[in-house]
């Protein structure tokens, strides 16, 4: 299975399992992930969760480009609507209010931010890196940047969203800016996240979930107002899919092919 769920001692570990694709999500994966959160919502025995990626190379690299390239994702004609298969992959999008901790090893980029922005906090290994490739490939970073803007200083999220594939944010820098709450040695993120989740699962669930809801209530109004503008921004700013594919393949101006490796800061 590309999405694996294991429950032990009140903690659900949700693992993205497509290491051959750097844990990128295709459309079936997105549906499965939505179903996982909805199932956990009705399971009173699950009091906390950890979301992670299989292996140490990547947490998640967003949507599988093949799903876009072969036309599986078609956009509405109206600029006031958007078809985004990853919009419902996060726990909060599915009305799940148990605390969720993200354990990040390796790359976390693009659509991974749908998950990271809906976790209560992040634990990352020292080898983790974060970046947003949208602008490089002619796409607007809207939902992703909006989600991360609630977790990072304005200048940091703006730089990450705008610099595309040219830069990667190191785990050290992410920790300094507050995106990451704890740094671990390589390979240690999952154990550290599970340690936190077990503590949360041991507390009275009503108090924990009420606190989660209170923290999110503090920022929901601004988040909702920003997201309401996303469809128009994407419709106006995105290049046609075929042009995006050219850039992704490195055949057009702005493509990554032949370029020196990204700067890690």
TrEMBL record:
GO molecular-function term, one example from the UniProt record: isomerase activity
* Gene3D superfamilies, per the entry: 2-enoyl-CoA Hydratase, Chain A, domain 1
Q: Where is this region: Disordered?
A: 244-265
Q: What domain of life does the UniProt record list for this protein's source?
A: Bacteria
Q: Which UniProt keywords apply?
A: Isomerase
Is Isomerase among this UniProt entry's keywords? yes
CDD domains (UniProt xref): crotonase-like
Q: Where is the signal peptide?
A: none
| Cross-referenced Pfam families | ECH_1
Q: Is Secreted among the key words of this record? A: no
| Protein's UniProt name | Enoyl-CoA hydratase/isomerase family protein
Q: Which organism is it from?
A: Streptomyces boncukensis
């Amino acid at each position: 299975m590309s999405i694996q769920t294991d429950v032990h001692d009140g903690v659900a570990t949700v693992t993205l399992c497509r290491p051959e694709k750097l844990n990128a999500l295709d459309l079936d994966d997105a549906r499965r992930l939505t179903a996982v959160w909805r199932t956990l919502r009705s399971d009173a025995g699950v009091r906390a969760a950890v979301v992670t990626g299989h292996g140490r190379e990547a947490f998640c690299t967003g949507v599988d480009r093949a799903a876009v390239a072969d036309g599986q994702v078609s956009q509405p004609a109206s600029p006031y609507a958007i078809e985004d298969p990853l919009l419902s992959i996060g726990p909060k999008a599915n009305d799940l209010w148990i605390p969720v901790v993200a354990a990040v090893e390796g790359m976390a980029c693009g659509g991974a931010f749908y998950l990271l922005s809906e976790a209560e906090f992040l634990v990352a290994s020292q080898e983790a890196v974060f970046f947003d490739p949208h602008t490089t490939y002619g796409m607007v970073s809207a939902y992703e940047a909006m989600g991360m803007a609630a977790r990072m200083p304005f200048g940091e999220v703006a730089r990450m969203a705008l610099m595309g594939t040219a830069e990667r944010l190191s785990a050290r820098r992410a920790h300094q800016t507050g995106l990451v709450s704890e740094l671990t040695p390589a390979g240690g993120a999952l154990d550290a996240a599970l340690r936190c989740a077990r503590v949360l699962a041991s507390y009275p669930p009503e108090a924990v979930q009420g606190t989660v809801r209170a923290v999110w209530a503090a920022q929901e109004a601004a988040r909702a107002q920003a997201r309401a503008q996303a469809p128009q921004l994407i419709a106006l700013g995105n290049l046609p899919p075929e042009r995006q594919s050219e850039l992704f393949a490195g055949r057009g101006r702005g493509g990554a092919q032949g370029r020196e490796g990204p700067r890690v800061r």
